[in-house]
Amino acid sequence: MNTKANPLPASVAVASGQGADISDWRPEDERFWESTGKKIAYRNLWISVPALLCGFAVWGMWGIITVQMLNLGFPFTQAELFTLTAISGISGATMRIPASFLVRLAGGRNTIFLTTAMLLAPAIGTGVALQHPEWPLWVFQLLALWSGVGGGNFASSMSNISTFFPKRLQGTALGLNAGLGNFGVTTMQIVIPLVMTLPLLGAFGGESMTLVKDSGWIFGKIAAGTPTWIQNAGFAWVLSLVPLSILAWFGMNNLKTVSPEAGHPVGAFAKVTYLYTLAFVPAIFILWLYLPAPTGLGLLNMWVAIPLDIILALLMMKLAAFGSMKENVSKQFAIFRNKHTWSLTALYIVTFGSFIGFSMVLPLAITVIFGFQHVADAAGVMTHTLKNPNAPSALTYAWIGPFVGAAVRPVGGWISDKVGGSIVTQIISAVMVFASGAVGYVMMQAYGSATPEQYFPAFLGLFIALFVASGIGNGSTFRTIGVIFDRQQAGPVLGWTSAVAAYGAFIAPVVIGAQIKAGTPQLAMYGFAIFYAVCLVLNWWFYLRAGAEIKNP
Predict the structure, then answer these.
(1) Among 31, 148, 282, 457, which is 20 to 30 Å from 506 by CA?
(2) pLDDT tens digits for 104-159?
(3) How many other β-carbons are positioned within 10 Å of the β-carbon of residue 10?
């Protein structure tokens, strides 16, 4: 197609920023892109990034909150605290399923504004609840469930940004949005320990509590007996969510070429709220069947609960959609007839699933494995209850891995734009096979030692390698999706693959927590290594072997 002979239409006036709704959008047209599209696309990207960052922060904050609840002596067991990170994980993953379709149904600007503003509810609610350690566990579990809105935002954000950029820049743009957005995990792991050390909101923020165990932040340990404002873990995000919501409303755009039937903002908000509410139903039902008493019935195995949750969420969307929404949902379901949707879903689990899962579980895993001496009692039975005086603080080190993983994510997209996404995915998968097996061995040694801290440098270094590989692989998978799928399907595929991969935030805390409880934490990491090896073969078969249907490269 000759892109230089076409004059720019009058509708470009709309695209130049005179309205929220853009009716003419042709990013593959070089003249349009350079004169009009580029400026608008990057403006939407730079607003999207901090909004997504806060989504990740609110979603992932329970990984840090549970550690501090343990340090403050909240009346819950380690197993009960692991359920909080698992609940927020499964909720965020389930919310991504409808979020994959929101931009098509409601418009990018409408969706990002509302889903960012929605985060105020779990942020404020968590701040209030954490001032009451006497409240029952189900209150904290409900707030962890509600925090899943932040996890869902990733799917809508990525789907939205993918529509603004030409294919040749998909890896870079999506890598920037996801990579910088993923700094929400690191930001949360740095900010929350910091704001808990001071009365952030003065008299309005409530009273402090006293640490009964040593805690920490990025500069080292905080001794037991120190006053702590744990409620600031929730309240802190209100200070950024309010201005970001306003910025999204006044600075972002709806692309009418992508969401022609978004309608009035009020109607668009109703669609978003309706579909998000539908997503909570299967999540709550599955958690009730999965979680042990007294919270649930304890009937389901995790590997049954996850696919059942996904199926129920899809069925809810399919059956409950109506009017034009029903037609749009049906169109988006076409992605499930493409085999590459399923192969790339598995590959994205390797990258993002690992990133978010390890981010969620690492703080509590450090606390449990290295915070205690593992010694045999008089009967020769290994015990794990004696406090380790030389333990590294989880809040001092847990942020490093997610920070590095998020930092290299745009690099992965940029490299993949140059050499091809699948070759990059192949290399990082091999690295993850090795690193996962090695960290499992180190965990085994530490969990059987009276001085586990001697194994901590190797443990942390190997986990950083896992985060680096998963971060680079995120960018490479984005690039592959942008190459294989057309513009209409790339967004929903990005959303769908990210939704399934987000179950890593549920799987990792459950699997690692269960194996730690069983005294065999290494088995969890060995299992992950086997999965990475299978996906390495899958990636080669579909995209790199000589007879592959789609060579990439």
Answers:
(1) 457
(2) 889 999 999 999 999 999 999 999 999 999 999 999 999 999 999 998 898 889 88
(3) 8
Residue 261 in contact with residue 30, Cβ under 8 Å?
no
Calculate what percentage of the chain has a pLDDT beyond 70.
95
CA distance 497 to 41: 23
Residues 101 and 72: their CA atoms lie apart, in Å, by: 41
Give me the DSSP letters along 24-53. Answer: ---TTSHHHIIIIIHHHHHHHHHHHHHHHH
Residues 6+ away with beta carbon under 8 Å from 27: 33, 37, 41, 164, 165, 166
Confidence at residue 469, expressed as pLDDT on a 0 to 100 scale: 94
**Strand ranges in 388-539 using DSSP code E only, listed in sequence order:** none
Q: How far is CA 124 from the centre of its chain?
A: 20
Q: In the predicted model, what is the mean pLDDT of residues 205-213?
A: 89
Contact assessment for residue 227 and residue 209, using Cβ atoms and an 8 Å cutoff: yes
3-class secondary structure, 3: coil
Q: What is the pLDDT of residues 528-549, one digit of tens each?
A: 999 999 999 999 999 988 888 8
On average, the pLDDT of the chain sits at 87
247-302 residue pLDDT tens: 999 999 999 988 888 889 999 999 899 888 888 888 899 989 988 877 788 898 88
**Residue 528 CA, distance from chain mean position:** 18
Assign 449 a pLDDT band (cuts: 50, 70, 90): very high
Please choose, from the candidates 417, 426, 441, the residue with its C-alpha nearest in 3D space to the C-alpha of residue 351.
426
**Percentages (nearest 5) of helix, strand, coil residues in the chain:** 75, 5, 25
The crossing angle, in degrees rounded to 10, of helices 183-195 and 354-370 is 40
Q: H/E element holding 326? A: helix 323-332
Q: In 61-106, which ranges are continuous DSSP H helix?
A: 62-71, 78-106
Pull the structure tokens for residue 24.
């003419």
Helix (H) or strand (E) holding 510: helix 504-518
**Residue 88 region, left (φ>0) first, then alpha (ψ -120 to 50), else beta?**
alpha
Q: Give yes or no for a contact between 102 and 508, defined as CB atoms under 8 angstroms apart.
A: no
Q: Tell me phi and psi for residue 503, to 5 degrees.
A: -65, -10
Residue carrying structure tokens 């097996």:
437
Q: Which token pair is 25?
A: 């959008």
Angle at 355 between CA 354 and CA 357, to 5 degrees: 65
Cβ atoms 522, 444 nearer than 8 A: yes
Q: Distances in Å between the alpha carbon of 173 and those of 39, 199, 401, 416?
A: 13, 38, 23, 12
Comparing CA positions, the residue from 495, 494, 429 lying closest to residue 465 is: 429
- Pick the more confident residue, 377 or 434: 434
